[in-house]
Amino acid sequence: MITDNSDLSSLRIDRSKKASDRPSSGWWKWIVALVAVGAIVIGWFVLRSQVTPATSVRVATVSLVTGNDAAADLVATGYVVAQRKAEVASKATGRLEFLGFEEGDLVSSGQLIARLDNKDFAASLELARAGLNQAEVDSLDKGRKYRRAQSLLKSGSITDSDLESAEAAYKNAQAAVAQAAAGVRVAEVNLENTYIRAPFDGTVLTKNADVGEIVAPFASSASSKGSVVTLADMSSLEVEADVAESNLDRVHVGQPCEIVLDAYPAVRYRGQVKKIVPTADRSRATVLTRVAFVNRDERVLPEMSARISFFTDTLSLTGSGSAAILTVPKESVTSRDGAKVVFRVNGETVSIASVVTGKEIGGQVEITSGLAAGDRVVLSPSGKMISGQKISITQ
Questions:
Q1: What's this model's pTM, rounded to 2 decimal places?
Q2: What is the CATH number of the domain that holds 62?
Q3: Backbone angles phi, psi at 159, to 5 degrees
Q4: Could you give the angle at the alpha carbon of 356 between the alpha carbons of 350 and 357, nearest 5°?
């Protein structure tokens, strides 16, 4: 059967179409998308670790304490204070005319330190003495007249009234002498008040006024000086330390101590508790304790900071046989969930470490477990600090 050619051509296979024109599967698109998402997530974490700002912290090193510091039953800090100290001033007001001492000079009790311009007081004293002389002469004259009146009354030359007048005049003259004498003493005191003398043996700590300045009691004006020098008795130097109320039962009068001045950390002074002041500071929960020097030299000066180690007995003060202990600053220890912890520095991050604390040694606290010598810990960690937190160390 014969058919049309056009119908036969429709049955022919068209080989001109390319393989790329055929529909294909989309699985590879999902693979590319997953790879892209993974790269973004990894990049985000990497970028976050680099961009997250580091927390600025101060750090301290765990130190090993030996000798007397380790043997001490309690350690406190305080300051050297002169128990006999005075701001030496004048009772008079005037211009400072003479100043005979500088800082560090030694003075003796009653020695003249300074003098005010006192020409007016000296003139007042001369006037008072002249008045006294006049009163004494007048009293002498009135006394003679009184005795003469007594003789005339016996001879009947005068009346009783004349004798009484002579007697009254004589007694008034005697009272005037007494008054003039008192005026002389007042003038002498006023003149003496212009001389500023040392109240006790001591050392001049500071010079508070210079020649030419106005000195006034209680510094009554802004331009005047209240005191000329500050004087201290160096033999009365003691250390005043604040002992926490919780540690007060470990301190008693006569207890042996060791004093170390911050200025001379290698020098150790023997001391003993002299007095425990019978009152507490409610704001700091401490009690003031005074420690006297057993041996002291000229290097000990007022207002120096010191560390005092309290011992149970004199033998403990030698520190012999005392095991070394680890200490950290008290401000590095904090609490997390009721436990004492510190944040240990690990490179640029921190990790939390549980610790067991012991006795306090001044501003340090003993660590019995949880740390090793040489470890670095964060000082005053914030309440939001966590393990792994990035830090930057500041001085």
A1: 0.60
A2: 2.40.420.20
A3: -95, 170
A4: 105
What is the DSSP annotation of 267-310? -EEEEEEEEEEEEEETTTTEEEEEEEESS--TT--TT-EEEEEE
**Structure tokens of 384?**
């939001």
> What CATH number is attached to the domain comprising 129?
1.10.287.470
Kindly report, residue by residue over 249-281, the tens digit of the pLDDT. 889 999 999 999 999 988 889 999 999 999 999
Q: What is the pLDDT of residues 296-321, one digit of tens each?
A: 999 999 999 998 988 886 655 555 54
Which amino acid would we find at residue 215?
V
**Alpha carbons 30 and 21: distance in angstroms, whole number:** 21
Into how many domains does the chain fold? Answer: 4
Residue 65's closest CA among 369, 323, 267?
A: 323
Helices (H), 52-159: 67-71, 119-155
240, 306: one domain: yes
Structure tokens at 319: 């520190």
Report yes or no: 286 and 76 within 8 Å, Cβ to Cβ: no
| Close Cβ partners of 375 (under 8 Å, ≥ 6 residues apart) | 61, 62, 344, 345
